[in-house]
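Batch 3, record 17
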Amino acid sequence: MNYTRWPIVVRMTAFLLAQLGAHAADRFAERIAPLDLAPRHVGLLRWIAAHPGASQREIAAAFGVQPSRVVVLVDELERRDLVQRHQDPGDRRSRSVRLTERGERMLAEVGRVFLAHQADLLAALTEEESAVLGELLGKVAAARGLTDGVHPGHAAADSGA
Amino acid sequence: MNYTRWPIVVRMTAFLLAQLGAHAADRFAERIAPLDLAPRHVGLLRWIAAHPGASQREIAAAFGVQPSRVVVLVDELERRDLVQRHQDPGDRRSRSVRLTERGERMLAEVGRVFLAHQADLLAALTEEESAVLGELLGKVAAARGLTDGVHPGHAAADSGA
DNA sequence: TATTGTTATACTCTATAACTATA
DNA sequence: TATAGTTATAGAGTATAACAATA
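Prediction for the assembled complex:
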């Protein structure tokens, strides 16, 4: 079952990581799909909750994406009444974004879903092993500059505040 | 730097996993891009090497994708002269696929690139920590049915042989 | 003239359906 | 008629470029 012809002498940890990461992301996506959300929405929702009233430009900068991408994402969240755009009285070009009541409740619900997801995902590990795994992953992530951010592809690292 | 309002009391290991997995996949993709390959090609190349002469139908079944998808992927590899299609004399509808000389050499090169990639990725860990990480990930992957396979999205698990 | 947000357009990857040739 | 492979078509997601309103 182990199709070789590959330096499989060493453990293919980097591959396992990519494989399991994709698996985790897929399973999480399945769990939030009934909430009418995709993973990319969760990252944005979390960030907006932590930076209430940020402008779309600021969001784009924080996530390292084009402003036009933010328009689409905020559109999707606003259509679901999870965030709301407000005119900035100081600069009428700018639109500040913040969570609605419904957005707050949704974020809480997503948090519960995430915990269930994580419990399932790591069910094979003991409490202690889970802690060790978390620590090792945290170490690697920090060394690679992925501190508190969001997925590459979906976003970039937290740029402060 | 840790934007909360989330049950961050527990470590978000599942998130770290998805984040790091995407990061690992992206970095690997960058490394093989100069070889004119994408990650999806590597999984296929490896599988074909381990199952020489398999038909496209068998490939599709092993990877859990539509036959039309296999056509495209094998086209891409054949255009690079890494694999070759052959008429099955027994059933002239069927096309058996196998690596070319060039494909063999490419696979070896990809293996070297992978090892360099992995070394970089896990540079923050000691030898022993790397081993522990590999073991824990292997445990989780096995429990989740991701034995020796390839990425979800790109493919499915090895179906034997 | 520069900047914020928006809209329009195109490109990549993938999935589905229709088609050809064998069996 | 069923099956292996192929081609055609359409969809999701993202990136780039052109644009309108405001500064």
